[in-house]
Amino acid sequence: MRGRHVVRSTLRATLAAANSQASASSAASVGAPVAVAAGRQGLNSISSSSSAPAPLQRPIVRSFCSGADADPQTLADEKLDLAVKAPISAETPKALRTFLDAHQSLGPDGRTRWWATLALDEEESQVEALSKALPRGGRVAPGLLDEFLPTKPARSEELLLRTLRSLGPSEGVREALRLRSAIRRAYAEVGQHSGAGFALERLDRRYTKIFELWFAPSMVQVQKIDAASSSEAVKQAATSVAEIAGASASQEGLWGSHHRCFALKHALAKPEDPPLLVAHASFVGALPASLDEVISGTGGDEKNLALLWALGVPMPTDDLDLAQALRHLGLGQVLRQRATSLLHEELEAKGASATASGPREVLALAPLRGFCDWLKSVQAWDRDTVAAEARPILKRALLKGGANFQREIQFVDNDGDKIAFRLVGSQGDLGHLEVTIGDQQPRRILRVVALEQEKVLRFLMEPGPEALQVSVPDEVFHSGDAAHVVHMAEAAGILPKVAQDALLALAYDYIIRRGADGSRSAEPVVHFHLAGGGALNAFHWRMEDTKQGLEESFGIVMSFAYRGAKDEEEAASAYLEKGLDAATFTATA
User: Fold this and answer.
1) CA 174, CA 185: separation in Å to the nearest integer?
2) What pLDDT, on the 0 to 100 scale, is given for residue 375?
3) Beta strand segments in 157-295, E
4) What is the per-residue pLDDT across 205-224, written as a single tens digit (0 to 9) for each?
5) CB 140 within 8 A of CB 7
6) pLDDT higher for 51 or 358?
7) Sequence-ordered list of residues with C-beta below 8 angstroms from that of 358, at least 6 positions apart, any chain
8) CA 278, CA 566: separation in Å to the nearest integer?
9) Measured distance CA(561)–CA(343) in Å, rounded
10) DSSP states of 368-431 as a string?
11) Do the Cβ atoms of 71 and 33 come closer than 8 Å?
12) What is this structure's pTM?
């Protein structure tokens, strides 16, 4: 895409062909919008509720109809003109809100078509202006479009600037992010290998430059927040980030004395405004074995470890995709750096000492999202480096048992209770192993082991967790049903200790895969922490035993050590310059 040329004549030919096609299908009256293919393959294949996709509406001839008679795409275009072309005045906020309402009323697919049309319009205008400065027959390379500085901002840029300036830091920032979210969604729907995709990508780059100024480090603030003094919107946003990481809103210890929560906002935001990003941390005395223990703050009275266990955007409460809207702005690093710095300061202020419970440290926990997908793609169970006893376990776990895998075992135990183990969820979906004892409600199993000599099955269940042991009749063991319960657990991602060494070695292989540049990590989370100056501290076996954690990484979690501003700056500079060759790995398991 980067190597191709954008030719003004090609754009005009595309538009002419599309207009001819539209005219052939119906006689378009003056002032009616004309359907245009926009010079890309598949732009009109955007999913919709109808069997035939809606065409891209491009208002080549400006419509003079309004109100109920106006096409929604044209109406939004008219409202945009009213919002950005008139001189800024007391009426500007009202005009902006009118446009934003029209923009929202388009719906997701309508906004995709509208932004694609606008991006192509603005690109055509720039191509036309540049072509006038070239010799006859000259062509405009894509790079020139990025370097081209118009005498005044395009309509799309003026819209963003006025939204930020005229609607204020609370409403304006959120609406501006909503606009960028719509642009990025349009780009994802249209695809990059198209004229519209190229134009949308350029438009997003222009928006990114404006946001980088608006969200410069000096223009954002990171605050400590707590449940008692925070507004409901702030608390709800913070809790949603904790839930995404695996916590429960009602979980004991989530807002306890060991817990710290940090929120990133624009410096001019109101105290009650919801944050853009949230981080959660816990002070503990020793590294816990599970995420539940991290959140609960276990480990005794001497809290020498600060664990950053969640960092992200709040769950959307409307159609604003904050994760996309904030992409490439570097705010995640701003929050991470400030949060780890505040945790270091608190450890120092408390005078925590290096004792038997371990040195004072700040660690960031990170899941291995995508690890299981990678294992399956490379058929890791066939690798020579994987121990023979771990191969069938790994294959069962990654293939969810297989097409003809038995998903339920029932028997009556030696105490006369009916016991039923079920692998819930269709093959390939998020599933879990549950047990039903007698007439009780099914409960999710976290651990299970079959002891043949004692003829028992021992398992750990939620909620609680609660441990239980059932005595299994001889015929159940001899038939292989007890062993199959363990196989069902493996298919649910609950793997035995025998697979630990093989999986941790594979996890290391996974994170040191190199990206497209041949230097840095291909795993986004690893790249984020190494680029921030973190050092890989360890892999933690089965620390995240949520359904998602088991499905995506068999519960394996990484930890990265942050050792202060000076060390972090040196490590980050080395990694960004030399990639993985200069990354700091203090442990591999």
Assistant:
1) 16
2) 95
3) 220-225, 259-266, 277-284
4) 999 999 999 999 899 999 99
5) yes
6) 358
7) 286, 287, 304, 305
8) 24
9) 12
10) -TTHHHHHHHTTGGG-TTS-GGGHHHHHHHHTTT-TT---EEEEE-TTS-EEEEEEES-TTS--
11) yes
12) 0.80
